[in-house]
Design goal:
single chain, mainly beta, Immunoglobulin-like, 4 domains, 6-stranded antiparallel beta sheet, 5-stranded mixed beta sheet, polysaccharide degradation
């Protein structure tokens, strides 16, 4: 029988204190097993007092011989290390530490040492990291079917867990070998709550049970308005912001178009269903804007999207908008010359206050777009012409210039000298810019016409 001297007992108590410090460094809860004498002996080495943690374990190493030196340790899993390589009677035990294990994983440590008198020790010790609590399964969003829905268990692991699935409202749930859960037995449009429970298998390294839930519904055969669009993306330019977005789910409806609204101010733009980008012009440089999108359909409008990122327009140089006749009669033809646009891009021209699309022109290699535009009949008073496109810097650019439409007096043809953007009217998006004749604001609400060459 092995015995232990008083001095050696003091050494073991100190060794257990050292064990606690080592496992604290491992950053985990520990389980300590204490024995009155070494728990295992083989070929001269003794192992005792194991301490298990979440990522490994430690234990004491001594010898039945007076001295063991040149000690080495090698683990088949994880990494083994020793607090020393030589032990003599009366000294604290050497602490062997194994780290890098997963929950419940075992490791066998192989030892070699030189013993007093020239002998050699060769033996091994096996233990395991602590088991971890079962982890709740991760579930995908529900995909509707005619009589229920399906959900994927994205971290499905049948080697670790047993799975039990159930559904409310009379639904029947099953799970296949790939982790696909199928709920059936629901009426069209009926919803149910799916529960997926996992129970850890013996030897898996985990213990206990955990569960997750997911709401789902069967397909509703009645078409609904489009789903809420995702938050759009906004890119600021000069007095303008380009807004783009993704098409939402149609939900059985036919999407007919989109409306984008700026905040603050309420300036808007509209597009056809096939267009998912527009430029809102006439914005105030230095003001931060966000934008929301609404999808329209034959079944009504969607809810407004979440707000876009914030975008703040900033003025640039090397731009201008000119008109050859600052004062004209209703229905007259004017020449609008817009400078500062990306060569080859399309520049759209509008007339405000009541928005009228005048046409588009392609910017030449010099960045100038020229439009010969016929003004609409019946428009009298002070108005604003606006050019919207992509500037030389690749960012959206909006420019305004004042246009006075006056009724003919005695057959006069109107006219005057050409005017450039230096006489441009300011635009307050959604605000009240007092117009001399109509007294109406310059709120930009225009269905944008796409033309060849317009950057997307």
């Amino acid at each position: 029988m092995l015995t232990q001297s008083r001095g050696r007992g003091v050494g073991r108590r100190a060794g257990r204190l050292l064990l606690g410090g080592v496992m604290a460094l491992m950053g985990s809860a520990v389980v300590v097993t204490t024995t009155a004498s070494p728990a295992f002996a083989c070929h001269g080495l003794l192992y005792a007092n194991p301490v298990r943690g979440a990522t490994g374990f430690t234990f004491e190493v001594t010898s039945s011989f007076a001295t063991a030196s040149n000690m080495t340790a090698q683990a088949n899993n994880g990494t083994a290390s020793l607090s020393g390589t030589t032990w003599s009677t009366g000294q604290q035990p050497i602490i062997a530490t194994v780290t890098g294990l997963t929950a419940g994983q075992s490791a066998t440590v192989q030892f070699n040492a030189s013993l007093t008198g020239g002998g050699t020790a060769c033996s091994s010790y096996t233990n395991a990291a602590l088991e971890a609590a079962a982890v709740a399964p991760t579930l995908s969003t529900a995909t509707p079917t005619a009589d229920g829905f399906t959900v994927d268990v994205t971290d499905y692991d049948a080697t670790r867990y047993d799975y039990v699935v159930s559904a409310t409202n009379g639904g029947a749930a099953t799970v296949d070998s790939n982790g696909l859960v199928t709920v059936t037995g629901l009426s069209p449009g009926q919803s149910a709550v799916l529960t997926v429970q996992v129970t850890a298998k013996n030897g898996s390294g985990f213990t206990g049970t955990a569960s997750s839930t997911r709401n789902g519904a069967a397909i509703d055969p009645t078409p609904q308005p489009p789903a809420t669009p995702a938050a759009p993306t906004a890119v600021a330019g000069d007095s303008a912001v380009k807004v783009s977005w993704a098409a939402p789910a149609a939900n059985g409806s036919v999407i007919t178009g989109y409306t984008v609204t700026a905040h603050p101010g309420g300036a808007t733009c509209e597009t056809e269903a096939s267009e998912r980008m527009c430029i809102i012009g006439g914005l105030t440089n230095g003001t931060a804007y966000t934008f929301k999108v609404v999808a329209s359909s034959n079944r009504g409008d969607s809810a407004a999207s979440p707000a876009s990122n914030s975008a703040t327009p900033t003025a640039v140089n090397n731009k201008d908008l000119a008109i050859n006749k600052p004062s004209v009669e209703p229905g007259s033809t004017v020449t609008l010359t817009a400078t500062g646009y990306q060569p080859g891009s399309s520049v759209d021209f509008y007339l405000f206050s009541s928005p009228v699309y005048l046409g588009a022109a392609i910017a030449g290699n010099n960045g100038i777009a020229v439009l010969l535009a016929k003004l609409p009949p019946g428009y009298i008073g002070q108005h604003t012409a606006r050019a919207i496109g992509i500037g030389l810097n690749g960012l959206p650019l909006s420019q305004d210039i004042a246009v006075l439409i006056a009724a003919a007096a005695g057959g006069g043809g109107g006219g005057g000298l050409p005017v450039t953007g230096s006489h441009r009217l300011p635009y307050l998006a959604g605000g009240a810019v007092a117009l001399l004749a109509l007294g109406s604001g310059l709120l930009y609400t225009v269905r944008r016409r796409r033309t060849a060459g317009t950057p997307a």
